[in-house]
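Q: What does the predicted 3D structure of YlxR family protein look like?
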Amino acid sequence: MASVRKQPQRACIGCGQMKDKKELIRVLRTPEGEFTLDATGRKNGRGAYLCRSAECLERAVKTKGLDRSFKMAVPKEVYEALREEMKALGLC
């Protein structure tokens, strides 16, 4: 009998819903302090997860979800860059 692997669950910092890790986008802070989207979910650094929707990104901006996740103030330019990356991926 083949065993079924359980998918890891993560919470969206926008809406707070628990979803499978593969359904979410990982926002990554690299050890150098840069912020980026991690499509693979395997890059090195601290991560926070967002649903694949503009609404969750905007809610995370409004509630300072990224600031809490990374325990630091996230510059406005980072949010703008995340919006642009999400648009490029066709998620907005």
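A (community wiki): The structure tokens above were generated from the sequence. The chain is about 30% helix and 20% strand. The mean pLDDT is 86.
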